[in-house]
Amino acid sequence: QTLCCFLVVYFVLACLTYGMGIPSGLFVPTLLIGATFGRIAGQLLATWLPDWQIDPGTFALIGAASFLGGVVRMTISLTVILMEATNNVTYGLPIMFAIMAAKLTGDYFTESLYDIHIELQEIPLLDWEPPRYMRKFRVTDVMASPVICLKQTVRVRQVLDLLRVCDHNGFPVVSRDKGKFSGLILRSQLITLLRVRAFFDGSEVRNTFYQLATGDDFLQDYPRYPSIDSVFVPEEEMDLYIDLTAYMNPVPYSVQPECPLERAFRLFRTMGLRHLPVVDDSNVPIGIITRKNLTHMEKHYTIVGGRFGK
Fold first, then answer.
1. CA gap 214, 209 in Å, rounded
2. DSSP the chain
3. How confident is the model at residue 256, as a pLDDT?
4. Which residues contact 267 (CB under 8 A, 6 or more apart)?
5. What is the pLDDT of residues 138-182, one digit of tens each?
6. pTM of the predicted model, to two decimals?
7. Rounded to whole angstroms, how far apart are CA atoms 196 and 192?
8. What parts of the chain have a pLDDT lower than 70?
9. Three-class SS string for 246-299?
10. How many CA atoms lie within 13 A of 238 on its CB side?
11. Pairing state of beta strands 170-174 and 150-151?
């Protein structure tokens, strides 16, 4: 009765606390719940079969392994961890069978708990391989268009107004005259430039790249950059300029409109990209792709006649 009450109470508490902003993980509670369930099963078998030499502790170990394997879908690493914890190699084979049975059973019904939680939180985490249906589509099917661009030299007022009404994290930078794609700048960089007042008068002649903001200014707020609402710029500085040339990424990855979506997915996955601009034959930005465009495309789009329709 004590083990059954403990199992029910601890299982309910583990379900309630998982996902909350408190220091309560899932690894140890899952081990404890599985061990409790296994010991209950071992004691029941020992009661029903008194002539057999049944060790409830062994059932507790197998229960902990199978329960954790079914929740997090770990296989080899979990087997090694439990074998090292018991310091007994003879338990390796039953632990391995229990974990594989739990994993295969869980995979038949649903994904792992961590994968479900990632999907619920809408975290843009890409799979190892692109889905098969991506082979039929181009980047123009999912890109965000029209794209919001900034010129290499831009007024402070324009940057401030843009960041207040737009929540994008990356902006293509275009040349001053022909609007050619020149680079990419992040929202966090723009906020830092506004915070440190990296402004200049438009009458100044700037033939060289001169940084008014240093690397320490950008690292000061890392990794939690302030919100644009916390940045105050006096009205007399609103008509000054910011030269983005010295701070932007001058050689970001970009693709053509006819690029296969599968190739763009592999670029994000292998190079760790957050933004991928799409440029036309004249090197003018016509769209941009983010991780959310790839991870949430099945939710926001439906495949109709071989193409995406909202």
1. 13
2. -HHHHHHHHHHHHHHHHTTSSSS--SHHHHHHHHHHHHHHHHHHHHHH-TTS---HHHHHHHHHHHHHHHHH---HHHHHHHHHHHT-GGGHHHHHHHHHHHHHHHHHH---HHHHHHHHTT--PPPSS--GGGGG-BGGGT-BSSPP-EESEEEHHHHHHHHHH---SEEEEE-TTT--EEEEEEHHHHHHHHHTT--B-TTS---S---SS-HHHHHHS-SSPPPGGG----GGGTT-EEEGGGTSBSS---B-TT-BHHHHHHHHHHHT-SEEEEE-TTS-EEEEEEHHHHHSHHHH-EEETTEEE-
3. 94
4. 253, 255, 273, 276
5. 999 889 888 999 998 899 999 999 999 988 889 999 988 888 999
6. 0.70
7. 6
8. 202-211, 298-310
9. HCCECCCCCECCCCEHHHHHHHHHHHCCCEEEEECCCCCEEEEEEHHHHHCHHH
10. 8
11. parallel
- 37: its two tokens: 């369930």
Q: What type of residue is 169?
A: N
